[in-house]
Amino acid sequence: MQAQAQALGFDVCRVTRPSAIPQAPQQLAAWLASGAAGSMDWLASTQARRSDPRKLWPETASILLLGMNYGPVGDPLAALAQKSAANISVYARGRDYHSLIKGKLKMLGSWLAGEAKGTELKVFVDTAPVMEKPLAQAAGLGWAGKHSNLVSREFGSWLFLGSIFTNLPLLPDEPEVDHCGTCHACLDICPTKAFPHPYVLDARRCISYLTIEHKGHIAREFRPLIGNRVFGCDDCLAVCPWNKFAAAAHETKLQAREEFLAPKIADLLRLDDAAFRVLFAGSAVKRIGFDRFTRNVLIAAGNSGDPMLASPVAKKLESPSALVRAMAVWALGRLEAPEHLGELERRFRPAETDAMVEAEWAAATGETALPLGAIEVKEGRPS
């Protein structure tokens, strides 16, 4: 089966039992109860089905865990030093992996069904309530590092995961053990200190969560720390010493598109909704939508220190989205000279009706000394 999986483009294939992660449901429950999931309510709504793979499909006797390497070429953090360019997470620099891996899982499933009469199966890639990382560790693909992500001795931090649930009683593989040792590089590098303890992530402080999952205004305390990251963050993954064994992705569709390697912030600010959809067609970036992406790009612009970006940022004051206008004001407060900011305020502020945008104007012009975390929206409501 490993040979067939590799022929289809997977780098590793292992087997585990649905009963192999008895502690995972309790750990998930405690994490959700702490509030660390932020606004990802879907995790709680699917908690019961996540607790046991057999609740998702009662006929499950074995679970195949498949991994596909998406390792980058070169230093994945290099673009962070280019302040007038944007940084997109490695996993989103190529084609969206969901459809690619799902198609290959179906092909492997068809082969398996042809090998064993009476085979029934279901395939899952990320979107179903499957606890893939604990199952992957149980199957021997890797272990959950101190940053809570899967780490492989062969592929480092860069494995996409998929699973096949089957009614076949396959021989399970041995689980992987923790090889992190005393290393805490992933915890130390996190810009926002999103790890309250080793192996525990507080998503509410995570740049990947803030730039991808979070739908509202990003708290002021986090904006400078986001730097030029416009979609996701790879810091904790990239710094892992086990990446010395990693190789670049061999699957062509997972290799980075040239236009996603350090794109200019100025070019991204010139996009409208239609151009955004064209540029990011087939990319994971597209799923957050134009307004949230523009919010992220405006934060990157504000962190750039590049006054040449003030003009394209100012055009976003005309956006119909309050989320975009608010971040445009914040960015201009960091880029524009006071006299120019005053001119823009006199032009745009009198017509402003959104309280969050108004609050940003007040902060940018020095009217109020807002607490760092004062501008934030949780579940659609100002806090």
Can you walk through the features of this model?
This protein has 383 residues and is α+β, with helices and mostly antiparallel strands. It has two domains: 1-81 and 91-191 and 236-255, no CATH class; 195-226 and 264-375, no CATH class. It has 18 helices and ten strands. The chain has a four-stranded antiparallel sheet, sandwiched between helices. It is elongated.
What features would you highlight for this structure?
about 375 residues; four-stranded antiparallel beta sheet; 18 helices; alpha+beta
Overall spatial form: elongated
What separation lies between the terminal Cα atoms?
Answer: 53 Å
Please describe the biggest sheet, giving its number of strands, its sense, and whether it closes into a barrel: 4 strands, antiparallel
List the strand order in the largest sheet.
1-2-7-4
The percent range for helix content is: 25-40%
Percentage beta strand: 5-15%
Q: How many beta-strand runs?
A: 10
| Discrete helix count | 18
Low-confidence stretches: 372-383
Q: What structural class is derived from the secondary structure elements?
A: alpha+beta
Radius of gyration: 22 Å
Describe the secondary structure blueprint for this structure.
Layout: H1 2-7, E1 12-16, H2 24-33, H3 41-45, H4 47-50, H5 53-56, E2 62-69, E3 87-88, H6 97-115, E4 121-124, H7 132-139, E5 143-144, E6 150-151, E7 159-166, H8 185-189, H9 207-213, H10 223-226, E8 229-231, H11 235-238, H12 265-269, H13 273-279, H14 289-304, H15 310-315, H16 322-335, H17 338-348, H18 355-364, E9 377-378, E10 381-382
Parallel strand pairs: 3-8
Antiparallel strand pairs: 1-2, 2-7, 4-7, 5-6, 9-10
Helix pairs in contact: 14-16, 16-18
